[in-house]
Specification:
Elements: H1 5-17, H2 26-41, H3 81-85, H4 106-115, E1 138-142, H5 156-169, E2 176-180, H6 191-210, E3 214-218, E4 237-241, E5 244-251, H7 254-259, H8 261-275
Parallel strand pairs: 1-2, 1-3, 3-5
Antiparallel strand pairs: 4-5
Helix pairs in contact: 1-2
Length: 276
């Protein structure tokens, strides 16, 4: 006897409602078992239905509760690079302190440069003084001292590279005055903030006391200290010091020049144009 799929489902559905062996219908039970055995031998061991059913329990419906609004956290203001560099300095005191007490000659300025607390948080032994004599042919200014040599403002590779540049310019060491905008290295100085805090006045006074013929600045980031807009940093400028005009030229940082032949070429052309 061949039992179709429809017949199996019909018999199976009837068996789900009643047990044929319990109600004495043994013929139906035997036919159902035979049909299952036939389908199992044919390799069919699953029963499929066109109607889907959910085997998972329905989730319990909970009343939605609005989440509380997040509390806005009040963060402590972060320190700026200027605040880190001059941590511990009174806010009311500008860099350099009272201008009335500033030194009036270059020798006294060097002593003041190494001891004035508002200039840097570094210790006296970690600061480096400018090097050279007054009325030099060229005053060279870098952002901060290079290297850790206590006797040299520019030491190591930066010093040798700067020396090679001066020799190419035809300037002897005694004809150059080497200085830095800060007396000691600092972590990521904010030159705009430092300029507005008084460092630009300190630098102007330094140049006034040194009385150089020209000022060459390595590092265009120092433009705010000279009141030069960033868009004009590539052009030659002048600095008016009590009626005396000093030519100023901003060049790339020494490290940038040493890495890039193209920048050295551009710098040399600008130097020739500036000194003609």
């Amino acid at each position: 006897m061949i039992v179709g799929a429809f017949e199996v489902k019909t018999c199976a559905g009837r068996m789900m409602h009643e047990n044929p062996k319990q109600n004495g219908d043994f013929a139906t039970a035997e036919a159902l078992e035979a049909a299952f055995d036939w389908w199992l031998e044919a390799g069919v061991d699953l029963d499929y239905s066109d109607d889907h059913s959910n085997w998972l329990a329905e989730p319990e419906v909970e009343e939605a509760v609005a989440a509380p609004k997040p509390v806005k956290r009040i963060e402590e203001p972060k320190q700026t690079p200027v605040e880190r560099a001059f941590e511990g300095t009174a806010q009311a005191i500008s860099i350099g302190g009272d201008q009335a007490s500033w030194p009036d000659d270059l020798a006294k300025f060097r002593e003041w440069w190494l001891s004035e607390p508002s200039l840097s948080h570094a210790r006296v032994e970690d600061r480096l003084p400018p090097r050279g004599v007054a009325k030099a042919r060229l005053m060279v200014i870098v952002a901060e001292p290079y290297g850790d040599d206590a006797d040299e403002l520019l030491s190591g590779g930066a010093g040798r590279f700067a020396g090679a540049i001066l020799r190419a310019m035809g300037i002897d060491q005694h004809e150059a005055y080497l200085a830095s905008a800060l007396p000691a290295p600092s972590s990521f100085p904010d030159w705009s903030a430092l300029a507005s805090s008084g460092l630009s006045q300190v630098l102007a006074n330094h140049i006034k006391l040194a009385e150089p013929e020209r000022v060459l600045v390595f590092g265009r980031g120092l433009a705010p200290l000279f009141g030069i807009d960033a868009a004009q940093a590539r052009k030659a400028s002048t600095l008016d010091l009590s009626g005396r005009t000093v030519p100023v030229l901003l060049a790339p940082d020494l490290a940038e020049l040493s890495r890039s032949p193209q920048r050295r070429h551009n710098f040399w052309n600008r130097w020739l144009e500036w000194t003609q």
